[in-house]
Design goal:
Elements: H1 2-13, H2 32-46, E1 49-53, E2 59-63, E3 74-79, E4 93-95, E5 103-106, E6 111-113, E7 129-131, H3 140-158, E8 167-172, H4 186-189, E9 193-199, E10 204-206, E11 211-220, H5 236-245, E12 262-270, E13 274-283, H6 286-306, E14 312-320, H7 324-327, H8 332-343, E15 349-350, H9 358-364, E16 371-373, E17 385-387, H10 388-405
Parallel strand pairs: 3-8, 3-9, 9-16, 10-15
Antiparallel strand pairs: 1-2, 2-8, 4-7, 5-6, 7-17, 10-16, 11-13, 11-14, 12-13
Helix pairs in contact: 1-3, 3-10, 8-10
Length: 407
């Protein structure tokens, strides 16, 4: 099975599917259809039914039940796009029987995954490590998830004696820019519950994520010749920095961890005349999330009061919510995944996501959807890697979940 997983994964990562957060189309890049159409062809070849690529780039398919009794319809999802953070023309490298030392990605640039920086590497000594070439991300987020789902479906179709209920599969575009399920038809997908294969290192199992909002602040200054500016100039750059300094320093992402939320400044543009600041606001706790939004509004109010005019205007938009609220009433689906991991020899690591997934939004759309590991590390950058053995375990977890759902 390992070789089949490796072959699929290497093929998928070499197809550039980078999404574009500035695009006005859906999907945000037409090149995502290149992978979508390949997956459509492969799903048909391995024997799934109702295979479709729709106009939005969603790939969906069904593996019909082969048992008479009624069991839950389970979905498995992964996303096709890779992050805009780093270019995606991937040239993968395979390091068999990893020796536990630094991994040299690019000899010319001396780019390496150093054990001192990433000590978790030593956990995979003796295994097969897959990386990119040092100039791109790898794309295990989330082409590992795609490969794992595809291999699991192929295993079931080539071993028809294995009993299973109806299985639904979906591969989505644009997850990395927060639009992965903007047009996803949950009713048409018709699963009782689902799992995204979009987690990190082996064992991760997640059913909690941040509540998330974005805020854009426009600051209108007053530009006066600096020689005659006393009492008249309002420097928009300084107003912006003043506003930022009024937010709690201890609630920045570089200082927080676990269940701690944050204010994260992600963009700043400014001149004396005008400035613009963008933040993302995150917290697992709904009350603390709402408090954070009110706090930043209050800070803007204080700025306007100080200057006795509306120098700062804002637009705030909720982005997604903590799926825990929707998962807890059906917590047995988390327990099912946890037990599946244990039964295939994986230690479950149930932890909150310090981010969001398609599953969070799907859960609020009526499809409860926890998140399972793919095995990857260091997503979105040149140091990304994934052990092949972790991918194999992810396939085993999928198959075991399906088996347990028939009991």
């Amino acid at each position: 099975m390992k070789q089949e997983i490796l072959n699929r994964f290497l093929k998928y990562v070499q197809i550039d599917t980078q999404s574009n957060e500035n695009s006005k189309t859906y999907p945000s890049t037409q090149k995502q259809f290149n992978l979508a159409q390949l997956l459509e062809k492969e799903l048909i070849e391995i024997g799934l039914q109702d295979v479709e690529v729709d106009k939005y780039g969603y790939v969906t398919a069904t593996l019909p039940s082969n048992i008479e009794k009624g069991v839950p319809v389970i979905g498995f999802l992964a996303h096709m796009d890779t992050a805009p953070d780093m270019r995606g023309n991937v040239r993968p490298q395979v390091f068999e029987n990893y020796n536990g030392d630094d991994i040299l990605l690019n000899k010319e640039s001396n780019i390496k995954i150093a054990v001192k920086d990433f000590p978790e590497l030593k956990d995979y000594k003796g295994q097969t490590i897959i990386t990119a070439s040092g100039n791109t991300l790898l794309g295990a987020d989330d082409k590992a998830g795609i490969a794992e789902i595809m291999i699991a479906m192929e295993y079931l179709t080539t071993n028809p004696e294995i009993k299973h209920g109806t299985i639904k599969v979906a591969f989505t575009p644009d997850e990395e820019i927060g639009k992965g399920v903007d047009h996803f038809d949950v009713k048409k997908f018709s699963a009782d519950y689902a799992y995204t294969l979009d987690g990190g290192p082996i064992g991760e199992l997640e059913y909690e994520n941040f509540n998330a909002a974005g805020i854009a602040i426009q600051i209108q200054g007053r530009n006066i010749h600096p020689g005659y500016a006393k009492g008249r100039m309002i420097n928009a750059i300084l107003v912006a920095t003043e506003l930022n300094d009024m937010l709690p320093i201890e609630q920045r992402p570089e200082i927080t961890n676990g269940y701690e939320g944050f204010f994260h400044i992600i963009k700043f543009m400014g001149t004396v005349e005008t400035a613009e600041i963008h933040y993302i606001i995150r917290d697992h706790d709904k009350e603390k999330f709402e408090y954070k939004k009110e706090l930043i509004k209050d800070v803007i109010g204080l700025i306007n009061k100080k200057y006795n005019q509306e120098v700062a205007k804002y637009k705030i938009e909720d982005q997604y919510y903590n799926m825990r609220e929707k998962i807890e009433p059906v917590y047995h689906i988390v327990e099912q995944a946890k037990q599946a991991m244990i039964e295939v020899g994986v230690t479950p690591n149930i932890k909150p996501i310090r981010g969001g997934t398609d599953g969070a939004r799907l859960s609020y759309m009526g499809l409860p959807c926890p998140n399972i590991f793919t095995g990857g590390h260091n997503y979105h950058g040149r140091y990304e890697f994934i052990p092949l053995e972790s991918m194999e375990k992810a396939v085993q977890v999928i198959l075991k979940i399906i088996e347990k759902s028939t009991k």
